[in-house]
């Protein structure tokens, strides 16, 4: 397929808000040429690979502007003047490049991006700028718009994974019936390019051949919530109970000498936890494995586990050795997904737990520890364990069905979390996506943010619907940092995936999550969460930010259905 064709489709996608139309446009693209199936999903999301291994071109807007100026034969000052006017370097490139279409293929363009990403060493930036300029002079104006946006990381077509999954199914069978098979394959490899290529080149049956492989993160299983020990035992029967650690979820992969650590956002953070990497090599008796667990910082003087915020400080690129000394961590393992080439995800939880215990060598001062477990079918036993965990300073418990599969990427009742407050039904926490903010007045104006506009996720339509405006709970310094980050993610118009009933001062691309604690849920005409027809939506009552949760993906946010379900539960549960 020619890149010009892709650019025209991008333009059509930008011009519509209709989910079905976007899905249809994407399905048409996928039908065009199977050879492009691998790279199309990456380009549609403005990346050069799957999220955990996407090469970066290393060209920021300043350098891109130089390339655009040279390619168009226009002065750099003129480029910046237009940029001031239009606020987007892609549109500027489009305005200064000639009106024509190139014959370059999507693959040609992709290869050139990779070439730019590979350039390193002295003089690399000059060389990268020249390579990008050489690419720009070959393309027409509309193509230039999107080339620049992709490289600047600002494509932002608002195409979530779920939309690509629907489009792939439609491309192959004309409807969305392949959705579950595509999602299953995707949840095991986190690579939509691989899934698209497997489906379109080899057919639906080949999707079943995609299994977890070390080096490719598996989408982590998530926990649903229930209000009390009694409801949990009533719903699940006999259960395995584990402490709920409040750290950072890490999936550890090993293949021979190589070790990877992936977060819930599918980022490779191996460099940030060198002692965990070393411990995987030392305490794991397997050539190949994929393990699931939570890494938690502790105070080396007292051994006391530290709150999430402290552990999160370890996720950094620089000064790793220094912070590692200050904040040592323990990695609590609670699952094994694959061992020496055998996919264990469809084996029962109890068997996986046993296998995990067989391959880990526990050492008294080892970085890796096994998560303790209790098995019971008695609500009072579960309740006592839960209370004991709270006394130990833990966040609560995670309760697991002994006979359940590892359900990658899904929030199901195979795992249920019980936290304090769940039983009261009036105080609950929500992971919300920031989609905008109000500037604020008085003291708040100094932070740049008065309140955040936050949303839940609606996976069926791959969209974010607002549920709360929240302006309290964070320390002053964090508002300032947040302001900077949100401005980098801001957009001039409402992001396509956002459904809102009013416009905040600034729109923000759905990227960052906050954990919000609320005193309950109410009906509200101001928010779109749960809104149907002329009925009001649902909103949080007395919301306060508990903490920033940048370790999670927007798709992991609390769902619209959860909020609506909780509201109706509150209606039936008497208030304390
Ligand atoms: P939540 O973040 O409240 O949805 O709770 C689910 C999270 O709890 C998981 O993503 C893990 O990061 C964390 N967690 C802590 N301990 C456990 C455990 N024993 N089993 C599963 N998840 C756990």
Q: In a nutshell, what does this entry contain?
A:
The protein is 38% helix and 21% strand. The protein has 576 residues and is α+β, with helices and mostly antiparallel strands.
Structure commentary:
The chain is α+β, with helices and mostly antiparallel strands. The chain has 3 domains: 46-152, DNA ligase, ATP-dependent, N-terminal domain (DNA ligase i, domain 1, Orthogonal Bundle), CATH 1.10.3260.10; 222-417, 2-Layer Sandwich (D-amino Acid Aminotransferase, Chain A, domain 1), CATH 3.30.470.30; 428-570, OB fold (Dihydrolipoamide Acetyltransferase, E2P) (Beta Barrel). Helices cover 38% and strands 21% of the residues. The protein is built from 21 helices and 21 strands. The strands form 4 sheets. Strands 12, 13, 14, 15, 16, 17, 18 and 21 form an 8-stranded mixed β-sheet that branches. Strands 3, 4, 5, 6, 7 and 8 form a 6-stranded mixed β-sheet that branches. A 5-stranded mixed β-sheet has the order 1-11-10-2-9, covered by helices on one side. Strand 13 and strand 14 form a beta hairpin. Helix 4 (61-72) packs across helix 8, helix 10 (161-173) packs parallel to helix 12 (192-202) and helix 11 crosses helix 12. It is globular. The termini are far apart. Mean pLDDT is 93; it is low at 571-576. It binds adenosine monophosphate. Residues 220, 222-223, 242, 244-245, 249, 294, 334, 371, 398, 415, 417 line the site of adenosine monophosphate.
């Amino acid at each position: 397929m020619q890149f010009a064709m892709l650019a025209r489709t991008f333009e059509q996608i930008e011009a519509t808000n209709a989910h079905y139309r976007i899905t249809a446009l994407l399905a048409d693209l996928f039908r065009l040429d199977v050879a492009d199936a691998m790279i199309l999903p990456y380009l549609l999301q403005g990346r050069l690979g799957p999220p955990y291994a996407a090469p970066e071109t290393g060209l920021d807007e300043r350098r891109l502007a130089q390339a655009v100026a040279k390619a168009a034969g226009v002065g750099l000052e003129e480029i910046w003047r237009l940029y001031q006017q239009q606020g987007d370097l892609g549109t500027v490139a489009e305005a200064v490049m000639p009106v024509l279409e190139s014959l370059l293929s999507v693959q040609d363009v992709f290869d050139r991006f990779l070439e730019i990403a590979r350039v390193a060493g002295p003089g690399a930036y000059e060389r990268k700028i020249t390579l990008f300029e050489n690419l720009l002079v070959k393309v027409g104006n509309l193509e230039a718009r999107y080339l620049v946006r992709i490289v600047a990381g600002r494509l932002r077509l608002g195409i979530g994974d779920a939309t690509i999954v629907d489009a792939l199914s439609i491309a192959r069978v004309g409807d969305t019936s392949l959705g579950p098979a595509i999602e299953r394959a995707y949840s095991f490899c986190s690579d939509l390019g691989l899934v698209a290529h497997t489906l379109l080149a080899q057919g639906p049956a080949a999707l079943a051949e995609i299994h977890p492989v070390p080096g490719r993160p598996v989408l982590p299983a998530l926990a649903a919530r229930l209000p009390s020990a009694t409801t949990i035992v009533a719903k699940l029967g006999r259960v395995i109970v584990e402490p709920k650690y409040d750290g950072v979820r890490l999936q550890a992969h090993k293949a021979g000498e190589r070790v990877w650590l992936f977060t819930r956002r599918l980022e490779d953070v191996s460099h940030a936890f060198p002692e965990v990497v070393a411990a995987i090599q030392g305490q794991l008796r397997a050539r190949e494995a994929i393990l699931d667990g939570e890494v938690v910082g502790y105070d080396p003087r007292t051994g006391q586990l530290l709150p999430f915020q402290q552990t999160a400080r370890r996720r950094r690129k620089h000064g790793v050795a220094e912070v590692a000394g200050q904040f040592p961590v323990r990695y609590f393992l609670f699952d094994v997904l694959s061992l020496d080439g055998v996919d264990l995800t469809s084996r029962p939880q109890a068997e996986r737990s046993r296998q995990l215990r067989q391959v880990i060598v526990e050492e008294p001062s080892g970085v890796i520890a096994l998560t303790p477990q209790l098995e019971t079918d008695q609500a009072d036993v579960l309740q006592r364990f839960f209370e004991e965990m709270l006394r130990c300073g833990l966040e609560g418990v995670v309760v697991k069905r002994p006979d359940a599969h590892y359900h990658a990427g899904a929030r199901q009742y195979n795992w249920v979390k019980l936290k304090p407050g769940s039983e009261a039904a009036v105080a609950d926490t929500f992971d919300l996506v920031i989609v905008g903010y109000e500037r604020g007045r008085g003291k708040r104006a100094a932070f740049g943010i008065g309140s955040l506009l936050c949303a839940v996720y609606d996976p069926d339509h791959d969209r974010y619907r607002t549920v709360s405006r929240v302006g309290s709970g964070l320390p002053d310094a964090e508002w300032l940092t947040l302001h900077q980050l949100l401005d980098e993610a801001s957009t001039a118009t409402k992001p396509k995936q956002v459904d809102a009933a009013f416009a905040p001062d600034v729109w923000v691309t759905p990227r960052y999550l906050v954990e919000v604690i609320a005193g309950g849920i109410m009906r509200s005409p101001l928010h779109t969460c749960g809104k149907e027809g002329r009925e009001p939506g649902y909103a949080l009552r007395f919301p306060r930010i508990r903490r920033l949760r940048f370790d999670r993906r927007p798709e992991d946010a609390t769902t619209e259905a959860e909020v609506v379900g909780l509201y109706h539960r509150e209606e039936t549960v008497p208030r304390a």
